[in-house]
Specification:
7-stranded mixed β-sheet; binds 1-(1,3-dimethyl-1H-pyrazol-5-yl)methanamine; 24 strands; mainly beta; 6-stranded mixed β-barrel; 4 helices; globular; about 325 residues
């Protein structure tokens, strides 16, 4: 089997990307944030207090003839940006891009934190990291990808995110028309449950390539590219009037400045993914006439995060084991 679904930026800053998902019988429609940095499929629901909702679609299990509550099961998750949610668990039919997962764990929110409430465009998340970090307790559940994997032509999914334009998540196949050149594969360390890999280094504009192992995760659910301070300082020291502005929450640049490209190395054959300078500006920073940089410090997080700013410059293959061990494929587009 194969699936293909369009994913769309939720706002003018490409802050997150949602895609349509149907749950239940008859189908209840949702717009969910596909997140390769977590492993819970959760939705706003009839259990979510009305003062924590803001127009989101809600899942009502009692209206689905295929819903079954998983008795005694619950979930609770918190994300790197401080947001969180928790609730109860049902199994139900979940359809994404023509692919149907029967008996998928659907995590119904009985509470959500403020940033979810205020993001009216997003009805929940589809976790696409490894099922080893699914939070359902006492019986851990599988991600949508793991649930449908046995039926897929190939155990892979791909992410093709775009700047201010619709992109695509494909399941079970690689669309050769979606990228240029070849795909460079690199091994994945999934010991922490993430799509972890090591980049071979970086390059600011047309400067020399700086060889430096940068270990991080490919995370479609994080907006920014979060890298070590030496990389971030090397980038912004090449930008006139760039400044690390605490009140803005990080590095800002003058909004009218053309920014250098930023490239990062993948694989052991010298391949690089180049983020055009235009995509390194995320728009007004909210303080002064400065704009917020797409590259920021991974500082105290404990890992580097290749989020949407990086991923939207690439066609990315999340391969869970077509060659035995999990790997990430990177191609320009
Ligand atoms: C809701 C959400 C998801 C992620 C990335 N995994 N973040 C940082 N926030």
């Amino acid at each position: 089997a194969k699936g293909s679904v369009v994913t769309t930026p939720i706002n003018s800053e490409d802050e997150a990307y949602d895609a349509p998902v149907s749950i239940g019988t008859p189908a209840q429609p949702f717009n969910l944030d596909f997140d390769t940095g977590s492993s819970d499929l959760w939705v706003f629901s009839s259990l979510t207090p009305s003062n924590e909702r803001n127009g989101q679609n809600i899942y009502t299990a009692s209206r689905s003839s295929t819903a079954k509550q998983l008795s005694g099961e619950s979930w609770k998750i918190s994300y790197g940006d401080g947001s969180s949610s928790s609730g109860l668990v049902y199994s139900d039919v979940v359809t994404i891009g023509g692919l149907t997962a029967a008996g998928q764990a659907v995590e119904a929110a009985s509470r959500v934190s403020q940033s979810f409430t205020s993001e009216s465009a997003t009805d929940g998340l589809v976790g696409l990291a490894f099922s080893s970090i699914n939070t359902v307790s006492p019986d851990q559940q599988t991600t949508f990808f793991d649930t449908v994997k046995p039926s897929l032509a190939s155990p892979v999914f791909t992410a093709d995110l775009k700047h201010q334009a619709p992109g695509t998540y494909n399941f079970g196949f690689i669309d050769k028309s979606a990228f240029t050149g070849s795909i460079t594969y690199t091994p994945v360390d999934n010991s922490q449950g993430f799509w972890g890999f090591t980049s071979t280094g970086f390059q600011v504009g047309n400067n020399d390539f700086q060889q430096e192992s940068i270990t991080g995760i490919a995370d479609t659910g994080t907006t920014l590219l979060l890298l070590p301070d030496d990389v971030v300082n090397a980038y912004y020291s090449s930008v006139n009037n760039a400044q690390n502005d605490q009140s803005a929450g990080g590095f800002t640049v003058p909004c009218d400045t053309s920014l250098p490209d930023f490239s990062f190395g993948v694989g052991n054959n010298g391949a690089m993914i180049t983020i055009p300078g235009s995509l390194m500006n995320l728009g007004p920073s909210g303080s002064g006439n400065s704009c917020f940089g797409g590259l920021q410090s991974s500082g105290t997080i404990g890992t580097n995060i290749f989020g949407d700013v990086a991923l939207k410059a690439a066609f990315v293959v999340f391969d869970s084991g077509s060659q035995g061990q999990p790997q990430l494929g990177w191609a320009s587009k």
